[in-house]
Amino acid sequence: MSFALLTPLVGPLVLAVLSLALGSSPLRRFLGLASSIVVLGSGIALVTAVMNDQVPTAGGGMLRADALSAYMLTVVGAVGLISTWGGLKTAADSRGQGAGIFEALISLFLAAMSLAVLADSIGLMWAAIEATTITTAFLVGHHRTRTSLEAAWKYVILGSVGVAIALLGIVLIYAASRETETPTLSWLLLSQAGLSLDPALITAGGALAVLGFATKAGLAPMHSWLPDAHSQAPAPVSGLMSGVLLAVALYAILRIQTITNLVIGPDFLRTMLSIGGLLSLAIAASLLIRQVDYKRMLAYSSIEHMGLMALGVAIGPAALPAVLLYMLGHGLIKATLFVISGRILHIEGTPVISNVRALLARRPGLAVPWLAAMAALVGFPPFSIFFSEVGIIMAGWAEGMGLVVMIALFLLLVIFAGLTRLTVGMVLGSPTPTPTPAFVSATGSIPSGSTQSIATIQSGPGDETLLVRDFSTHGPILPIILALAVTASVAFIAHPIGDLLERAVSVLGGTN
Fold first, then answer.
1. DSSP class of 64
2. pLDDT tens digits, residue range 287-337?
3. Helix or strand or coil: residue 317?
4. Rounded CA separation 90/102 (Å)
5. What is the value of pTM for the model shown?
6. Cα separations (Å) of 203 from 195, 196, 253, 317, 365?
7. Which of 16, 18, 58, 359 could make an S-S bridge to 104, C-beta 3.0–4.6 Å?
């Protein structure tokens, strides 16, 4: 099965080169989607292997698939599929002459994320996560507007600081391993019980590594790059960053936590992650109440969900199955919402929440999936985010973290109220007729030379052409349906999902 380890790395790299070589061919817009399919297929193949008690390796042991890495690779592929497939049309409309570079960067991003979850060396894992800073910086600034370039620079600076801190932590962990017979950065070796590692170096290295990766995960107080980057990036990129980049950074924290727990116990990182998680929830709650931009609203929601996942990681093995399920559910739903937000922006011509009203009456094809995905995001059953949140809260209570759980519940209630108010404001209400603009002729056409898109013109109730639009004209609907269906059903699948989650937790040294 070693080919399944190499395919998600080599396949996207080949497709990246192909996207640059195809020139103006319309086929190149599908290459990002093809990369996602390659990664997802490899993830499913590796999941099948580990469920059959195999441990695929390649590159002399540098690449290795256990239950956790196989699961994470599947999450990367699934979220990538929804983002690239769902964003085909709206992204294509904005790519222009940079389409080949855009698709190449998407493929390189997926290859780097695949390497991060498949690498046995925590040094190689760090290098792969650092590589995403380069690819996503260009993707965030793809529109080349002043705000998008500013967001890209902010992301580069803060992201680079974060990964530099993480590198220092990894160097200290390696220094601690030099006291053993075999100095190493292999996670498999470092996570073995009984290894004589220097507690002081592991404490300092673990803290720095977690702090650095927390920057990439969007945890407060290192979160400030996230709202700008997610709101300015093209919709498929926002979905990938929210659903894949943040989850893989949290995966890196899980790997580091396993090493530190064996040497110094769980209390140190538990305190650190609890503070970061609660602070993330508090910042998201305070800023969502007065949010005016729906893409930034989704970005702050990512900070909220990553904060709750960090609390789950802090709680420990009892909450880890819920955290891993959370990664999949949040990734699929957030990719769906960013894809739909891109379509709303394309049609309405504005990211301002107060300028988008009565979507359910005017554009039900967009409003209905938006409402369903928002219901999943705020934690309504039967969507898996509900079960993940309940699992984390119950585990925290059982582990004696009742005060932390109560604070988190209060903040979640504030966030729920804020997201509900903003969503209702966008979706409900009656459309308000507005006078036909002076530049629109009696036949409804726009004179040549006008720069305003007809998609931004408000229409009266009698205009059936603009009141009801077919959702599929703005992009494929099937990925949206698939994402919602999977998120609504995955929590009820005991086998193989439940078994896979149990195996993944056991890899980290925990049991259910």
1. E
2. 998 899 999 999 999 999 999 999 999 999 999 999 999 999 999 999 999
3. coil
4. 13
5. 0.90
6. 15, 14, 14, 20, 52
7. 16
